[in-house]
């Protein structure tokens, strides 16, 4: 029997919270400040994005394989392109125009990081340039776009694998990915390489795929999850929140190798807890944190530009804003720009996604 594609409550709220982790990570903080302790968890926000993406993409692919005789790569890649490419390439254009804009306004650039290569950026290879140079590109928002490169590589890899592998064997993809992530991190660690590609992050996506497999292929287990007391689910959620802030502060042998498995597991369980029709972790779509989560893609791409702009204005005016003012101004402006971007630019492309669904 065909399954209807679900709307997932709570995810937009979790997206916005994850963005906030990344946002605070990029704000300037004084050494030994409690704010620095908070900002060090920023990278974990990206980790959650990977896990959530693993769930959503796997769910979509499994559902299409379940409902149709053959997965349409044209439709799958078409929808992904319409969501990612327009704003991605608009931001690349902005980044490469920035030096000329600064020169015209007689403003200094950062003089930090490597000089961007347009071909590397356009081909979604910024993450590999970062790995090879062990530095970041010198123009915003290119430094944060490495994760979008990883996402794009995941879409290609996952889409092709699900197209090739029979529906009954797709679980092998997730299992292989879970094992591969650890193996690649060990190899990269031994060779002094940064973990900034799909191979060293693949198990984040694989952990996210597990609740998707349960939802589509083992749906009766969702009823078992519903029987878990809601109090325990929220306690687990709070424990996960604590883990987000504790993990960066704790050091132990093999931390870089094992941490993705720890975080991936906890994030996947929390996603699973949102899926039952009753007794689920639930953050209402009507709440502001959920509504702002709709604009997460723009928030992620615009925030470093806005933070840099606020800091530059501070220098021009020869004033010293405290952390709270910088954070409030930067976040407010980022939200406004992201809402405008979504409604005036991104939405025009998202409306075209209707042409990339099967008529069956």
UniProtKB/TrEMBL annotation:
GO molecular-function term, one example from the UniProt record: acyltransferase activity, transferring groups other than amino-acyl groups
Membrane spanning stretches: 12-29, 41-63, 84-102, 144-164, 171-188, 194-216, 228-251, 257-276, 288-311, 323-345
Keywords per UniProt: Acyltransferase, Membrane, Transferase, Transmembrane, Transmembrane helix
Pfam families (UniProt xref): Acyl_transf_3 (PF01757)
Boundaries of every Acyltransferase domain copy: 10-341
UniProt cross-references to InterPro entries, sorted A to Z: Acyl_transf_3_dom, Acyltransferase_3
GO terms, biological process: polysaccharide biosynthetic process
GO cellular component: membrane
PANTHER family: ACETYLTRANSFERASE (PTHR23028), ACYL_TRANSF_3 DOMAIN-CONTAINING PROTEIN (PTHR23028:SF53)
Protein name in the entry: Acyltransferase
Organism whose genome encodes this protein: Marinilabilia rubra
